[in-house]
Design goal:
This protein is globular. α1 packs across α2. By secondary structure, the chain is mainly alpha-helical.
């Protein structure tokens, strides 16, 4: 399989990851019975998208991009236990920041994509410090993350056809 179809399909996965992540964050305040399916969809499409992000920009992203992808993958492993979700979120957030640095360096995504990834971490991080704002900051950070993911996915989908 050449990388172009892989890039294209993982771009589509990134668009779906954005939709699933935003929907999960918004619905989590009053979760419907199918919230688990939304989060499963978010996890699967996010991981596929991350693989595509790395393949799409690996030559330009260098060690920053690779370190970011590895941290994101490792961070996702911690989401299988409620006692380690905070650690997983922290590792994933660090990975996203590293991936954003690699993406700036590679220059393959529009600049606003990695900016939104960084902004999503800056918006969501204070939720750990201010419990009264946690839900609002979580939703804002997740939607910002989702738009950045969908933007990266659209870029890969449209440029790889």
């Amino acid at each position: 399989m050449s990388s172009s179809p892989f890039i294209r399909w993982t771009g589509l996965a990134a668009i779906f990851a954005g939709v699933f992540n935003a929907a999960g964050a918004i619905l989590d305040a009053n979760p419907p019975g199918y919230i688990g399916i939304i989060y499963l969809g978010a996890t699967v499409t996010t991981l596929a998208a991350i693989a595509g992000f790395y393949q799409y920009q690996k030559d330009g992203a260098g060690i920053w991009g690779l370190a970011g992808v590895l941290a994101i993958l490792i961070g996702n492993l911690f989401f299988f236990s409620e006692s380690t979700v905070a650690l997983g979120s922290s590792v994933l957030g660090l990975g996203l920041l590293l991936l954003a640095v690699g993406s700036f360096k590679a220059g393959k995504f529009p600049r606003w994509v990695p900016v939104l990834w960084v902004l999503s971490m800056l918006v969501g991080l204070p939720g750990f410090l201010y419990p009264d704002l946690r839900e609002t900051l979580f939703i804002m950070g997740a939607v910002t993350f989702a738009v950045g993911f969908a933007g990266a996915g659209y870029t890969m989908w449209s440029r790889s056809g």
